[in-house]
Design goal:
With 207 residues, this protein is an alpha/beta fold. It contains 8 helices and 8 strands. Strand 2, helix 3 and strand 3 form a beta-alpha-beta unit. The radius of gyration is 17 Å and the shape is globular.
């Protein structure tokens, strides 16, 4: 949420974008909400699971794509329009990737507009996974990559800000925590989130 909120807030009103393959889990949905709070003109969510796409639309996405039905890169290119010029062509201004596949990072890069910003947050299950970018595009298109884990959070500064957003109803946490678990069910909660049975879990202390 933090990286998405701070990054997307730089240019309100321009096209923002989100990513695919499990990309609308708790991290991806936080990015969707961050883009909504930044007044993004267009928020494109991509995920193969219907209930996650539906959640993305409820939380602020303007479009939800199924990557098993369409080419996600071409779909984003078509939806985002063309600003014209070699370095301002089609693609999203901001792309937030929250999947678990190296291929998703490559696709996120491909759908980022020239001079746009890519924030990859997904972690592959293969620790040795690599990604490949076209050299010409990597050298000439001026894209900026922001690595991100834990939202690049600064606890003292950012947690109070996010709590205020939640208290004001601007950040909907309840919609993402589909099921509550007791402390003795933490392992099951992690399994359910990991296999996409629930969007996210709320662990509640006993009593």
């Amino acid at each position: 949420m933090h990286r998405g909120g701070r990054r997307a807030a730089h240019r309100p009103g321009r096209t923002r974008q989100r990513r695919r393959r499990g990309g609308c889990g708790p991290v991806g949905l936080s990015y969707v909400q961050a883009a909504r709070l930044a007044l993004a003109a267009q928020i494109i969510a991509i995920d193969p699971l219907p209930h996650r796409r539906e959640a993305a639309l409820r939380l602020g996405a303007t479009t939800a794509l199924d990557p098993t039905e369409v080419d996600p890169v071409e779909a984003v290119m078509d939806l985002s329009g063309d600003l014209g010029g070699i370095n301002q062509g089609r693609g999203a201004d901001f792309v937030f990737e929250a999947a678990r596949e190296a291929r998703a990072v490559e696709q996120a890069w491909a759908m980022t507009r020239s001079a746009g910003h890519l924030t990859p947050a997904g972690l592959s299950e293969d620790p040795g996974a690599t990604v490949t970018f076209p050299m010409m595009e990597f050298s000439n298109h001026g894209k900026t990559v922001h690595s991100c884990q834990q939202g690049s959070l600064r606890m003292r500064r950012d947690l109070p800000w996010m709590v205020r957003l939640a208290e004001q109803g601007q950040l909907d946490l309840k919609a993402m925590a589909e099921r509550s678990y007791g402390l003795d069910e933490v392992v099951q909660a992690m399994r359910d989130v990991g296999d996409c049975s629930v969007l996210d879990a709320n662990v509640v202390p006993a009593g």
